[in-house]
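To whoever is covering the structure queue this week,

Two jobs came back overnight. Logging them here so there's a record in the thread.

Job A:
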Amino acid sequence: MSVTLKINGETRTLDADPDSPLLWALRDELKLTGTKFGCGIASCGACTVHLDGMPIRSCQTMVGDVEDAEITTIEGIDGKAAEAVQAAWQELDVPQCGYCQSGQIMAATALLSETRKPTDEDIDFAMDGNVCRCATYARIRKAIHLASDKMEG
């Protein structure tokens, strides 16, 4: 069945079952492999993408439910918040294994797009459900604060 999606600013038509997870359309059909499979039950955040600017779990979002939305993956993320987050991540050397980082970056970018100067509580709430097996949570929080400062300056 044919499904049309707007991904990273480009309209793409896929041969996909509308009841299949968006994650598999991104990875298998479009070869956008920056979005990772982690748990398959929307509990780890590795598959986070933006749907109309809001972070969602693509492993539990069906392709047929997002045909009229703007989907942004880690490959297409841009703007002031995204640039600041990516720069802070590099400056503080946040990742260890890196597997969860695309989801972490997508969640952090969404937070800073909405809340320019987040508190620790804001960060904890926004990042809740993004699991890092390497436990880099302190560096992630510090990087979000640094990204916020970079956006101001």
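Job B:
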Amino acid sequence: MTKYGVVALLVLIFAVPSFGKTSKNTYPASCSDLWPAVKDVLGNAENYEVQESDDTLMVAAYKVKHNVHVTVTGALTQRANHVALVGKGAECEMQVKSNYSGFEHDDSGDFKKRVEESFAKLKGEKPAEPAKPVDEKK
């Protein structure tokens, strides 16, 4: 009986990561403003390998570099994640379908954090207004 319990536990351990879920986050910006941040994050070859990307639809499929799983049969697999931007009026909803979230990695949460950091950085890169001349009389 213990043998069957161990087998069932092993199946659950390796099967749970395969149940992907979609996380949705809404941003107070247009999708055309958010898409460059998504592309910037996916352009990081250390973290991601882009499989497909469509600038018109603002969708992409990508693999996370650390996201390698061992299946029950012992084969190594790497599952693709997906991101899509969906306009919601003046806001943009980022939908991330992540196939893995566990103790060591939170693919969806990591991706969201990186996009938010990139978006803030890109917003800050807009040309600043010229500085006002200093009044030397004071």
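Note for Job B: Residues 4-18, 69-75 have pLDDT under 50 and may be disordered.

Please reply-all if you pick these up so we don't duplicate work.
Q.
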